[in-house]
Amino acid sequence: MEKAYLSGETALHLIPQGTFAENIRCCGAGVPAFYTPTGLNTLYAEGKLPTKYDSNGNVLKYNEAREVRTFNGKEYLLEEAFPTADFAWIKAWKADKMGNCVFKGTSYNYNRIMANAARITIVEAEEIVELGELPAESIHLPGLNVNRLFKGKKWGKIEVLHNDDDSKESKEKSVRDVIAQRAAKEFVPGSSCNLGVGMPVLASDYASKDGRHVYVQSENAIIGVGGYPKRGEKQSDWINAGKETIVPIPGASTFGSDVAFGQIRGGHLDMTVLGALECSQYGDVANYMIPGKMVKGMGGAMDLVANREATKIMVVQTHCDKHGNPKIKAKCDLPLTGSRCVHMIITELACFDVDHEKGLTLRDHNPNTSIEEIKSKTGCDFKVAEGCGPWKV
Hints:
single chain; about 400 residues; alpha/beta; Glutaconate Coenzyme A-transferase; 3 domains; ten-stranded mixed beta sheet; 24 strands; globular; transferase
């Protein structure tokens, strides 16, 4: 898809994942539009995000700009609900002959809201049971929304299989390990966190080893993400947002993706940790595309940085790119994921606190570097906190 989009073979409309979920939910609920803080002050909101290129890489079309309105002193974007779909194809764990469905593990995700937003919903169930065998209070999708039902023959595809013994701890720490170990010190025991793929998850692993256990929430609708399964015990119905197999911790709960993003936008999480392509001195962050070269899509990141007042936003990234250029700058050059939203930046060299008006303050740094080296590799000025010194991990 990325290659076809950049070469002009197809058009592509990038939508924040939480907005996507709400587009679907509102469609099925008869709500024509809604306001959201997600994407504010980005190219997505301004109508400057390319949706179609020609074969030479020139932009032919952009997305539509969003209307902005202020409520209680805060700005929001107006988003329209999707039109009703002709078909929804839903995968269920169990269904009764009335069409009532139960989803297993993290497979709840978009299933319920998609079924509600289509004229005809087709359900593939692993098991079809008689009426009354499923307790009424356990039903995730009412049969009212189901038009066709059949028993599947093949399922259980696993895209990213990880076992708890896949990675052995190395004596020599990589750059990723250095960043993750320092980031782990910011995890507050008992708090709720959403983690991006890669270094954020690694930071959580280090935090757990230090006894700082947190409740990990994932956009695919679970809170209580645990580690990887033991070899031979994987289940395709239990994955994280990176499609990796996981084991839920005792006390975990699953729900729909619309609920997951309500938790995120509503500021119900204590912290979110994500990677970045670059950050600015005032807490702008860019992490989803390099125009004309690379498009990952924003996924749920725009939602995750949308409520800076309620949720601490921490970025973990290398200090410089592969060419040696600073990734912490006076101003971001790449399309923003969020504007003035990041509270802390941690690299292999340094930990910065971010003031959205005054800029960066160096809190502490890698014992193997110096403030002079950090200054030479940072693309903006920063203050040095009183008592700043080598970190201890």
